[in-house]
Amino acid sequence: MSPKLGRGYTLEEVEQVLIDRHRINKDGCWIWTGAIGTHGYGRIRYEGREWRVHRLAAYLWLGVDWDTTPVILHRSDCDKLCINPDHLYVGTQRENVADYLARKHGV
Ligand SMILES: [Zn+2]
Predict the structure, then answer these.
(1) How far is Cα 77 from Cα 27, in angstroms, rounded to an integer?
(2) 13 CA to middle of ligand 1, Å?
(3) Which tens digits make up the pLDDT trace of 1-58?
(4) CATH number of the domain that 15 lies in?
């Protein structure tokens, strides 16, 4: 029986999965082609819980520290399945709401 059973991937494996499971679209987005969660974000199991893949991309490739930077945003013209670190940036919860409203109203 594997000691990893139920825990999902290690961080190294997560990085490899992120690299393997995306396709690049005409806008330069790295569109996640793996599992998708209920809110339309890519998801992956890591350390015993479900993660949104763009958050792990930011963690791996932007060096995000969860204690101080809890919110990862996509560029406004970007697909929410995108995991291109060049298209992700760190935001505040307030910006996240503003971004959501802007999208909702088609601004
Ligand atoms: Zn993108």
Answers:
(1) 9
(2) 22
(3) 444 455 678 889 999 999 999 999 999 999 999 999 988 999 998 888 889 999 999 9
(4) 3.90.75
